[in-house]
Design goal:
Helices cover 76% and strands 0% of the residues. By secondary structure, it is an all-alpha fold. The chain has one domain.
């Protein structure tokens, strides 16, 4: 618990919150501008708005945003003599890795919350959509957050190993591009077992695009959630083992 608390204390002056707020807002604004510029109506109301905002967001920006958050969370450890202090810590490698992951999980949840609030705001204020965002999109949002965890864990590992801030972001972009190709090829099984593909698959739930049927079924939701939890556990275990073997600089 000490490691988790320490990581959250580091967030007070972190640029992570700027990423959490700005990235989803940019995604929503882009969807709104494209809709207005094209003069296209929201044929299916909330569903069309969600589709135009969230699908592209899940293909590229989300993975890169998670990579940026992971780099920011590890950045302090690569400055000055902090890495050597980390190597001389009294807590276990598992506690360090899970502490970082706990922070990233909260940031991912916060980022999705900003996205949902922004979608509701533009839906009501700009497009005058009736009612409220359907409940299924709140469920999908929870699934998206869980699907973010393997990517966050993997990027956390890369950011642990790389002192560069930008290098892990480049890895995330390449991973996202590869995931798009997998989804376009309709290789759903591959998409679900690859972290970047999994987060893309989660953002497509209920949209009918790529490999999605257009219906949110218990089977698909269960597959995504189980894959997310298993992949996260595997990546955390691997990252912990690697950190155990690292030394002072």
């Amino acid at each position: 618990m000490g490691s988790v608390k320490a990581e959250f204390l580091k967030l007070k002056r972190s640029l992570s919150w700027a990423v959490v707020v700005l990235l989803p807002l940019i995604a929503v604004i882009t969807g709104v501008v494209n809709t207005i510029a094209a003069g296209q109506a929201l044929e299916n109301g909330w569903h069309t708005l969600w589709l135009r905002v969230v699908v592209f967001y899940g293909l590229f920006p989300l993975a890169v945003g998670l990579a940026a958050l992971a780099s920011l969370v590890w950045r302090v450890e690569h400055q000055g003599g902090n890495w050597n202090a980390l190597m001389g810590r009294q807590v276990s490698s598992l506690q360090v890795v899970t502490g970082k992951m706990a922070v990233l999980a909260v940031l991912a949840a916060a980022m999705q919350s900003v996205l949902v609030v922004a979608v509701i705001a533009v839906g009501k204020l700009i497009f005058g959509l009736p009612g409220m965002l359907p409940g299924q999109y709140f469920l999908i949002s929870v699934v998206i957050v869980l699907a973010c965890l393997p990517v966050a864990a993997l990027q956390s590992g890369f950011s642990m190993l790389m002192r560069s801030f930008a290098a892990p972001l480049a890895v995330a972009l390449l991973g996202a591009v590869a995931a798009v190709l997998v989804l376009m090829a309709r290789l759903e099984v591959v998409a679900v077992v690859v972290p970047y593909g999994l987060v893309g698959r989660a953002t497509q739930l209920g949209t009918g695009l790529f490999v999605d049927s257009g219906t949110v079924t218990p089977g698909v939701v269960t597959a995504v959630v189980v894959a997310a939890l298993v992949l996260t556990a595997v990546v955390i275990a691997a990252t912990t083992a690697i950190l155990d073997r690292r030394d002072i600089r």
